[in-house]
Design goal:
This protein is α+β, with helices and mostly antiparallel strands. It contains nine helices and 14 strands. Helix 1 packs antiparallel against helix 2 and helix 7 runs parallel beside helix 8.
């Protein structure tokens, strides 16, 4: 666990952090309509990929590698084990000079996330989780408390960008029964730790690309929360990113109430 954290921290220090708020002309590209990538993403992924393979020689499913060859993601389904890498989670924030970005990795075995790592370069905080062993923030174990009794006390994040407009509108209307709700921080590696650390009660996503959600989902569940699809199925990293809808809660019992409230009529 410590070795992977070291790999992420060193790759970040080498090629990501020196370019934060210092990207040169030509170092930001569009890889798909509305999706940007930087030289920092690509260089960090190359470094992390090489070093993870040295640690455990299994396929590496990196966000940028998959952008070039989508078939690489099938290793999450077809191989006994695979690494997942998000070299700069929150690239738009990174490009804009906003500090909400992270460097992330996960280990997937037989389709389930068994270990995960989130490094937040600006705060210098490392989050780690290991299936069956717990969740940690800089070596301090994370244990979530029981949720408050009343839903109007629950705070969270609703990511409605990729939802069809009628469902998004209904979701936001349903959220009036809850406490303060925000649209998100633009980086899963920032948002999931808010729940695992007890600052927020829930997260709701529609699009669930595996490198974005495998690290944080394991972090929250190992801290005592629940991360599940809208039908209640436990989260598993979908190789093609075609599985939509994910509700994350700090308390497993709270999850059921949140689904009932938020998804009514959707």
């Amino acid at each position: 666990m410590e070795k992977v954290t070291e790999i992420l921290v060193e790759a970040s220090a080498e090629v990501v952090e020196p370019r934060f708020r210092a990207l040169a002309e030509g170092e930001v590209m569009e890889k798909a309509p509305g999706e940007v990538v930087t030289v920092a993403d690509r260089e960090a992924e190359r470094i992390i990929t090489r070093r993870l393979r040295e640690l455990l020689p299994v396929p590496v499913v990196g966000e940028e590698a998959v952008a070039a060859d989508p078939a690489l993601a099938l290793a999450l389904r077809d191989e006994p084990a695979a690494w997942l890498v998000d070299p700069v989670d929150g690239t738009k924030n990174f490009v804009a000079g906003h500090p909400a970005y992270a460097v992330m990795a996960s280990l997937v075995r037989h389709g389930e996330t068994v270990a995960s790592w989130i490094w937040q370069p600006v705060t210098r905080i490392a989050y780690t989780a290991e299936r069956g062993a717990g969740a940690w923030r800089d070596g301090e174990r994370l244990t979530l408390a029981r949720a408050a009794d009343r839903p109007e006390q629950w705070t969270g994040i609703l990511k409605t960008r990729y939802l069809p407009r009628p469902q998004a509108d209904r979701l936001l209307a349903n959220a009036a029964a809850l406490g303060p709700v925000e649209p998100g921080r633009g980086a899963a590696g920032i948002e999931y730790p808010l729940v695992a650390g007890g600052s927020h009660d829930f997260l709701l996503y529609w699009r669930t690309l595996p490198w974005d959600h495998a690290p944080g989902s394991l972090l929250v569940t190992e801290a005592g929360g629940r991360s599940a699809r809208f039908d209640g199925a436990p989260y598993r990293p979908d190789p093609l990113g075609d599985a939509h809808g994910l509700l994350v809660a700090s308390d497993p019992e709270q999850w059921d109430t949140l689904r009932e409230l938020l998804l009514a009529g959707i």
